[in-house]
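Aim 2 progress update. The chain analyzed this quarter is reproduced below.
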Amino acid sequence: MNRSPCRLSLDTSALVHNWRLLDAMSGAAACGAAVKADGYGLGASAVVRRLADAGCRDFFVATWAEARALVDTGASLSVLHGVRAEDMALARLRNARPVLNTPTQVARWKEAGGGDCDVMVDTGMNRLGVSAEDIAGGLLDGLRIDTLMTHLASADEDVALNETQRARFAALAGTTRARRMSIANSAGIALGTSYHLDLVRPGIALYGGVPRAELTAIRQVARPEAQVLQRRRVRAGETVGYNATWVAPADTEVAILNLGYADGYWRGFSGTGHALLGDARLPLLGRVSMDLIAVDCGGCAVAEGDWLALDYALPQAAAASGMSQYELLTGLGTRFDRVWR
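Predicted structure tokens:
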């Protein structure tokens, strides 16, 4: 069977470790998992199965199409973008409920007969959510609300807005019949017990992202690997890649890898990225192109057909590329074979 010349090596033990670490940090709060954007690019169905086996019971997707793709997992799904008129045909999927974000969505849900739902409250991010004034005015009366939630705008920073949002949300306790309250994302978990409430909703940290220094025990989950298409010697004074941005200072052994920005290995890695061969770091030469990169393989035993890993620990890769840790994961393309180990 033909296989792709690039693959993602995905570490089950690291994924489960990260969820258990966040669960332990969250104390008595239930620890869920954001699996939107196809499990942050790693494959939502595979992530859900592994985290469910570890004990996770609450999963969050963005859209009803994402929920439909996971319905056969049996997982409890919250659909973060609520219900548009176009979503109502799917909105009775088993094990899925909407996170209502606007008065119009609330009215639409009530008119359709209601049912279990979650509700997002805006406490200062000004993105999605109903207002505290809406709630005081009775907007949510009659709804069967599982979780009342809000979203922190700057949990990865030590700013006053975190406490402002927490206090605004805490003031809503008891004003609805919601079974649970939830405010913390990955970074919010690290802000402390007053942010844990009944349920936490980590995302990036599950997959190896480190949004705060308190989360440095998080382990890398995803590592891109690419096959060597050619090994060649570049003579001193010759160049590599588009626009000849790298000039060989001496005769250099170069490996050409089957990977590029069409796969989500971004141009920002040009001149800063590295491939890995054991403990050896092989610098990326010249520009990242659509489908190919070149690395200095020096005296290493690298031959056509061999596989090399890319240095992709998310905090360091973000610094090297100028991309956010979120972009580095969710941009990983469909040409990768995703291989869980």
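The two ends are 20 Å apart (CA to CA). The first helix runs from residue 12 to 25. These observations will guide the mutagenesis experiments scheduled for the next reporting period.
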